[in-house]
Amino acid sequence: MDRFHCSYLNGYVELTPERESHITERHPDLLPDYRDKIRAVLADPDEVRLSERSGSTHTFARWFDDVRNGKHIVVVVVSDFYSERHWIITAYIARRLSGGTVEWKRN
To answer: Domain limits at 15?
Structure first.
């Protein structure tokens, strides 16, 4: 299992082997080629959104010019604030961002 520091959550986010396998199978354009970008998104996102469905789920996004001629990498994280545990449920590449409520955005 990997752990990535997340500045917004002020803690570490887990990427379990099961979730990594899910991302690799469902989003092969992201993993394994852009694995390092997941760390960068969590450490220094451009935008953080709160899920409309679950108050414990955040979407972190960051634009990368060098990803498929310019795309966002989106990392979806579930948090259990009682145990202070955070884990990635999925991650993907997107042309644009949508859904959720913007909680924080880089100026």
So the answer is: 2-101
Please tell me the pTM assigned to this model: 0.95
Q: What is the Cα–Cα distance from 58 to 77, expressed in whole angstroms?
A: 5
Q: Which long-range contacts (CB under 8 A, 24 or more apart) does 56-62 make?
A: 56/80, 56/81, 57/89, 58/8, 58/9, 58/103, 59/97, 59/99, 59/100, 60/6, 60/8, 61/94, 61/97, 62/37
CATH number of 53's domain: 3.30.2310
Using DSSP bridges, classify how beta strands 85-94 and 11-15 pair: parallel, antiparallel or unpaired.
parallel
Quick check: is 107 in a domain? no
- The tally of domains found in the chain comes to 1
- Tell me: the pLDDT tens digits for 7-33? 999 999 999 999 999 999 999 999 999
Measured CA to CA, the distance from residue 20 to residue 4 in angstroms comes to: 13
